[in-house]
Amino acid sequence: MTEQQVTHGAGPLDDAHAQLAEAAAHLGLSEGTHRMLAASRRELMVTVPLKRDDGSIAVYKGYRVQHNYSRGPAKGGLRYAPGVDLNEVRALAMWMTWKCALLDVPYGGAKGGIAIDPREHSLPELERVTRRYTSEILPIIGPTVDIPAPDIGTDEQTMAWIMDTYSVAVGHTVPGVVTGKPVSLGGSLGRALATSRGVAHVAALAMRTRGIDPTRATAAVQGFGKVGHGAAQLLAEHGVRVVAVSDIDGAIYAPGGLDTAALTIHAASTGSVRDFSGAENIDATELLALDVDVLVPAAVEGVLTADTAPLVKASIVVEGANGPTTKAADAILAARDILVVPDILANAGGVVVSYFEWVQANQAWQWSEDDVNARLADKMDRAWHDVSAYSVEHAMTLRQAATALAVRRVTDAHRLRGLYP
């Protein structure tokens, strides 16, 4: 891999490093400690050949980055998207470290990905590329080492293939090697909606902080994938009027509110939210500028920028995606007194219930969905309280407070374990 390839797409990593630098200065960390936290502990780049259905051979780049594992095994999703590169994976792995520490989940952060467009491949091709990728990264994953989970472009079927490939290699079934599996293979009840449930839960907490009654509030959700569609449905259950959603093909707007359940069916049958009955098709960028109480960016990183942040009219932004707000946009939103609930808090429901799934796998036991959801709510409530209190005490934004708390917890783990001579 050339240097040009390695440095391509450094935007999210620049933002992640800037957030860490700010936290390190606030905490008074030494230069050496800061440098240690900024660097990934282990990185693996692999070549993933695929024999396609027509007999031709395609070759893809795959990555697995373990940013930190001082507080426990590395944990993080696996992304299939054409724009995946090393620096994006590095940034996502670092954010996973802070997310796990903030929610007091005994994991470190990791992330993986393959630079592939899953929409251009058949199911058998996706199975073959997944199994080959798993075989390539197999030496550095495992239930006590690094535990992958679904992300953009992957799902519970992907996790089932990884679990099977790993289990065949070691000679026995290992349910705990991945999370986000099908329930019939040891997955957790409540896992599918966990990230969305956490987003909706903290959105309700944020609204109450700003004196907004959720039953009188409006919201727009950017992205209608794993996180966005569930967040829209759960916000509606909280009484919020969801007036707009978008996906990769565009956006729709209905001032009176969208029937999110019917929209889910429409999107599944047509492949897009566009042309939904009773809604107006609008440009995707228009959604970010709608006059709503809550904006939920739940697609990809870097959608709120120096160009788009001034257009935001929402009083609260709840980050369903990882890294949707750039550093420049963060400053603009803070100056405008727009409350931003950062990704490492807002979308942490997925890793929390992944942890619950891992615990259940280790115990060979299954909790009820009500039990899972109650435990998730408790975790989210505690993290919200911790971040809110720290923010007030130190006159910080929620992102600054969340990052500082997380970095301090990881630093404490480093200090207690010591540095191996």
UniProtKB/TrEMBL annotation:
Sites marked Important for catalysis: 151
Organism: Demequina lutea
The protein's name: Glutamate dehydrogenase
Gene3D superfamilies the UniProt entry points to: Leucine Dehydrogenase, chain A, domain 1, NAD(P)-binding Rossmann-like Domain
Residues reported in the UniProt entry to bind substrate: 75, 99, 354
GO MF annotation list: glutamate dehydrogenase (NAD+) activity; nucleotide binding
SUPFAM superfamilies: Aminoacid dehydrogenase-like, N-terminal domain, NAD(P)-binding Rossmann-fold domains
A Gene Ontology BP annotation from the UniProt entry: L-glutamate catabolic process
